[in-house]
Write a structure and sequence with these properties.
Length: 112
């Protein structure tokens, strides 16, 4: 495993966000959703795609908060431009489990 210097880690902007819109993403190679995410007034709304269809329904995701990286360069995923990276873990069956706060926090909250 490659080591990361602390100052490099500080460059990453991990923020809590609220999913405001969820759409199917039929063009994706692996089953995915298109997400619209509200990061609050400072950053605004960004788009992301996530391969989380086996663990979450669209209704499960709407208005939920999770942790995302907001300052990665945008990434083209098929016909969709992803503007942030949703963070997650896997369970014993390799299902994706979103990283999220235990209680609701402001959308501008970030990792300290």
């Amino acid at each position: 495993m490659e080591e990361v210097l602390y100052n490099d880690f500080l460059k990453i902007q991990l923020r809590v966000w609220t999913i405001t819109r969820v759409e199917e993403f039929p063009e994706a190679i692996n089953p995915s959703y298109k997400l619209r995410i509200d990061f609050g007034a400072e950053i605004g709304v960004k788009k992301s795609s996530a391969q989380i269809t086996t663990t979450y329904s669209m209704d499960d995701l709407l208005k939920t908060q999770v942790l995302a990286v907001v300052n990665f360069a945008p990434k083209q995923i098929g016909p969709f431009m992803s503007e942030c990276l949703v963070t997650w873990f896997t369970d014993e069956e390799w299902n994706i489990i979103l990283a999220r706060p235990q209680v609701k926090v402001p959308n501008w909250s970030y990792l300290h």
